[in-house]
Design a protein that fits this description.
It holds the Pfam family ABC_tran. With 293 residues, the protein is of the alpha/beta class. It contains 10 helices and 14 strands.
Length: 293
């Protein structure tokens, strides 16, 4: 049985067709990243799975339970943080996470021990101050810790690492992978393709309310016909398909030797900013522009 399944989800808001037939699945124990441009339909999809929104057509199931007809069964098995959610301001992170767990039926002592464990995992163990005086990143960590601490079977995280610094982001990745190992399945959204490349088992790419493809990060990168890329300052002649970045450009190559030839053809070696392999961000842009079809 899959953790999540959606078939032909349609959702309209007035004239806006937010979802135009979204189909996707996440296996049990898998972390599925839902990625796509602003307004693509990521949050709408998550809100349908979490029983916050009814689809106009199509079906969605969580652990086999229909999100409309069996919403109570779904709610018992999930934990969700919406985008930009703000917790109780006057509580400390420890009190906040403890309260969330107690509301889900945990005893006080177990809830507090669990709260400490996950706040510690996210580097917030010394935060005994009320949430209202914490930095934006510390608040975000408290909210993510609350969701992970629930041990719910399926976790939904809408941009959990938005605004977090590089080190904390890695702590969150570690905590997410730990949660998967302990038996949860996770659907998360992110705009950071570097993050998706590291943390996701599979990535569903959504654009204008339709899922374009759903595959492992590596399989998505392999869809790109190029293997290498270089960022160069403008100055030498560039191929016609170079991506214009104002005074710089990204140039793609099918092989290392093509990259080498290009670098040696530059009129000034100082024009080369960086060179390396293509990654998920390149695949994302390639696939969104209709490549690979
Ligand atoms: N409650 C609503 N009322 C009207 N339109 C809505 C509502 N919620 C979403 N939409 C519209 O539906 C479309 C999809 O929005 P959604 O929030 O799902 O996108 P998203 O992929 O999560 O975007 P972002 O990356 O910016 O968070 C957008 O055009 C948005 O304006």
């Amino acid at each position: 049985m899959n953790a999540l399944e959606a078939e032909g989800l349609v959702k309209r808001f007035g004239n806006v067709e937010a979802l135009r037939g979204v189909s996707l699945e996440a296996r049990k124990g898998e972390l599925l990243v839902l990625a796509g441009p602003n307004g693509a339909g990521k949050t709408t999809t998550v809100r349908i799975f979490t029983t916050n929104l009814r689809p106009d057509a199509g079906e969605a199931r969580v652990l086999g339970y229909d999100v409309v007809r069996e919403y109570r069964e779904v709610r018992r098995r999930i934990a969700y943080i919406p985008q930009g959610f703000e917790p109780f301001w006057e509580h400390t992170p420890e009190e906040y996470v403890t309260a969330v767990l107690m509301m889900r039926g945990w005893s006080f002592w177990e809830a507090r021990a669990q709260a400490k464990r996950w706040l510690d995992a996210l580097g917030l163990s010394d935060a005994r101050r009320p949430i209202r005086v914490l930095s934006g990143g510390q608040v975000r960590r408290a909210v993510v810790a609350a969701v992970l601490a629930t041990e719910a079977e399926v976790l939904f995280l809408d941009e959990p690492t938005e605004g977090l610094d590089v080190e904390v982001r890695r702590e969150v990745w570690r905590a997410l992978r730990e949660r998967l190992r302990d038996g949860s399945s996770i659907l998360m959204t992110t705009h950071d393709m570097g993050e998706a490349e590291v943390v996701a088992d599979r990535v569903a790419l959504i654009n204008s309310g339709v899922v374009l493809c759903q595959e492992s990060p590596r399989a998505l990168v392999e869809k790109v016909p190029y293997r290498y890329r270089a960022v160069v300052k403008k100055g030498s002649p560039l191929p016609a398909d170079a991506v214009d970045l104002g005074d710089r450009a990204i140039v793609y190559f099918r092989s290392r030797s093509e990259l080498g030839e290009f670098v040696s053809s530059l009129s000034d070696p100082g024009l080369l900013v960086s060179a390396g392999s293509v990654g998920l961000e390149d695949a994302y842009l390639f696939l969104l522009r209709g490549g690979g079809r």
